[in-house]
Structure formats: structure tokens, C-alpha cells
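agent> call fold_tool(seq_1)
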Amino acid sequence: MKVLAVDTSSLVISVAIVEPKILIAEYVLNQEKNHSMKTVPAIEMVVDDCGENIKNMDVFAVAHGPGSFTGLRIGVATIKALAQALDRPVVGVSTLDGLAFNLAYAEGLICPIMDARRQQVYTSVYKFCDGRLTRLEEYMAAPLKELIGLLSKWDEPVNFCGDGILAYRQLIEQEMGSRARFAPPVHALQRASSIAWLALERALEGQIQRYWELKPFYLRKSQAEQKFGSFDGSKEVSS
């Protein structure tokens, strides 16, 4: 089974192809580029460079949120279009799950933090148990200090990843001291390979969707939606 995954939930554009036990290809661009212009060419480049054909993909996956409202819509729309055109199933994976999976088998807790602006982060808390990623808290958009307070109920090291560590590392270190650990850059930001591995696990277990069922997953309203009172996002409660 081959899975092609896309993550456009932040400034990062990432595309990966995996099959059981093998990472076939991955592309990561961490620059402020136009996702609407870069995503499809990135997919084409990855597929072509590894000698594959898009028709050989069995499942299409995407980081469906939380994250940039525009980025999520671009990634989800792209994957839905491919799945519809080729009649393939899809798997939507939480961006936070993907970030946590970057730190597979880390000792202690794993806490991805995405900068949600206004002193808030998109986050949850994870741990690897029996070789599987286990989520211990709900997905949330929370003030950083509220998250630090939540983490105080565990007496374990906390491994942070995500772009929030760039904005809030100093504050976290002040509040948590040596309990706080920070992922190196190669593991800190979104990677489509992590989305693809999680999607592969779920697809093998039959946890797939049809393209029309796939929607972006938002944790809060956009500024425009807050202003005008509409909200079309969907909440997700299971990993």
C-alpha cells in the first residue's frame, strides 16, 4: 500500500510517499511561499523524481488541521481533487498528531505547540505507549501559561516541537526549567512523512474516508468568521 501525504498547515510545504516499512520520498520547503502555486508542483516533483505514477497511489492523506486557515484549505482541496479523480480513499490526520509523531519514542511527554497568535497555541499532550502514539488530552487552542499549568500534573520531562517553540521557548524555559526539552529543527516542524505514516497505520486498520467526507479541522474561528459570526469548521475528538 502506497500513501501520498501533503502538509500545508503552516509556512512549511511538505509532500511524502510511504509504503509499509519504507519512506520512498519526502519534500520539505520551510519558506513563506504561495501554497496555492507550490503544492501541486511539489507533488508532481516528488512523484516524478522517485519514478512513481500518481495512479499507483493507494491512499491520499493530508494534515487537515489545526493550522493556517488558507493553508489547510489548499491542502485539503488538493487531496480531495486527487482522490476524486483517481477514485481513491483519503485519510485526514491532525497536524498535532503529525508533529507529535516526529518525536516517536521520546522519553516522557510530547507536546506539539503551534503558534496561534495572540499568546495562544494549538496543542495537545501525547506519549508513546507500546509503540503507538497515544493522545492524553483533547486538541485545544489555549494560552501558553494555561498549557504550562496543565503540564504540571505530570512529573515527567516534556518534549516540545512545533513552530511555537520559536516564539515561546524562553518563556517555557523560565516556567518549566529542566523539565522542558526542545526538538532540533529537523524534527520541530511539520513533515508529510509523519502524516503519511499515521495515515498508513489508519488505512491498514480500515480507518479511511471518501473524498467528500474530508474537511479542514479548525480549533477556533478565523478573524473574519469571528467578526461576521459564521464558522464552518468541524471539531475532532479522537486521534
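agent> call fold_tool(seq_2)
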Amino acid sequence: MTRTLPVLALALALPMALGGCASMPSAPLAPAPTKPVDMARFYSGVWREVARRPESLTDGCVAGATEYTMLDATHVKVRDTCTVGTPAGKLKDIGGTGTILDPGTNAKLHVGYRVFGIFTVGRDYWVLDHDETWFISTDPTFTRLYLYTRPDKDTPELRTQLAARAKALGYDVSKLEYPAQP
């Protein structure tokens, strides 16, 4: 009898929880990427994260960067790094394999990050706008926002331009944080 009660409670609660989700309004979607990404140029080398919306995963992280290495026509090795507290702080990193979700345009990437070497956590990233020296990345739910530059191209003027472009795309850039850089 004691084992039946938790199972019964779960059986009754699950439909109610799922029914509540069905009636919740959906989150707004980010603007869809429209500009094709040249995989060989874009998904190679290091990009510096110069601004982002705050999230618990990056609390205390500064000097953020993402390194891409092309594996084949639709897969990319991804390594995200940052340091704790100061640019000279302890290095934190996480990596995984990215899969291009829109071959031909190459602006939508799903990354499966390996956590503790045991399980995979997935994240989707959309490249909303870019050129050879910078890009604006988000997730499809309009929640996350990241501004990146090539390490040798980062300037205060470029950061201001990127924030203005993100604002023009509909993002609230007043919440952006600009972590310390090396």
C-alpha cells in the first residue's frame, strides 16, 4: 500500500501538470537568422565573449571565449571557456559537439555539452547577425544574448555598435553585462 500511494499521486499529478503547460502562453521566438554563415571562416578559431545577458551559469565568469573547430560539413567541435573572478583567475571550460540545424545557411547550431563526462546537456544557438570580426548570438526563445568579437578586434566602439544592433533586433540591451577581458 505504501508504494502504491506515491505512484498514484504521480499518476494524478502528471496530467494536471502537463495540462497546465498546454495552456501557458508560449515564449516569444527570437528573430530568425537570415544571413548565411561561411562555415570555414566562422566555425574556426577563437571568438571572445564581450557582452551577455546575465545567467546563473556564467556568474563570476570573465574573459569568456568560444573556440570552434570544424569536424565535417554539419558538425563543429565547441569549447567554451572563462576565468573565475578576474582574467587571471581559475580557468573553467566545457565542450561538446555542435550540429548545424540549417545546412546551407549554417546559422543555427545545436551543441551537446558533456557535463562531468557523464551526460549531455543541449543548447541551441542562432547567429542573428555577423561579419568577419563579430557576431550576435541568441537562443530561439529570446532569452539568451551574447555578443562576440575576434580577440584582436574588440574595441569599446564595436561593443557599442553591437549592442545597438542587438537592440534593433528587439533585445533589451539594458541588461547586458560586459565581463572583464584579458
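agent> summarizing second result for user.
The CA atoms of residues 115 and 121 lie 7 Å apart. The radius of gyration is 19 Å.
agent> awaiting next instruction.
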